Amino acid sequence: MRPSPSGFKLKDLLPAGAMPSLMTLLVYALAGTGMGLLAMKTGIPAAPLAGALIGAAVVSMSGRLEIAEWPPGTRTALQIGIGTVIGTGLTRTSLEQLQDLWKPAVLITLTLVMTGLVIGLWTSRLLGVDPLITLLGAAPGGISGMSLVGEDYGVGAAVAALHAVRLITVLLVLPLVVKLLTPLGLGNS
What is the rounded CA–CA span in Å between residue 2 and residue 6? Predict the structure, then answer.
């Protein structure tokens, strides 16, 4: 358990023999849910994900709770759920669009993967950070997927932190850039 600056610990509120890990998970879940719901009011894309991440991270970084130990199979269930949600978004229309967009899809994918590899390796060498963390952190995947991949290698939290910074920055900056560029004819194809 991490030391708390004030000396307060959640387990001090529980009766002897109670399951602090269950209570800990509940607090993390409530913090993530609360911030996720609050973030929805911002209108930022993927706001619930970013809000939940921030809510749970703030609780975790406070040092007042034990590190969350999720039950076995939780990550597998999340990976299946995320894959299912993404998969349901791929429709017949998506497939029809891919007939026209396969060249840009290949070009963008190769460029992002190569750029991620170069940036990841360069960042590792320049800053002395574990190359596994920087490679997964610079990968073009989403925060949830890449964090789960990182977790498989024991670096999930670090990868999540890098992707959280990237995601929040992109979600705050890109809509503003699009708003500024739209009057200049962007999106009027």
Answer: 12
- pLDDT, tens only, 89-115: 889 998 888 888 999 999 999 999 999
- Per-residue model confidence (pLDDT) at position 189: 54
Query: Are residues 109 and 26 part of one domain?
Result: no
pTM greater than 0.70 (yes/no): no
Other CB atoms within 10 A of residue 170 CB: 13
Q: What is the DSSP string of 11-74?
A: GGGSPTT--HHHHHHHHHHHHHHHHHHHHHTT--TTHHHHHHHHHHHHHHHHTSSPPP-PPTTH
- The span from the CA of 31 to the CA of 117, in Å, is 34
Question: Do 93 and 60 share a structural domain?
Answer: no
Domain containing residue 114: 74-189
One domain for residues 106 and 168: yes
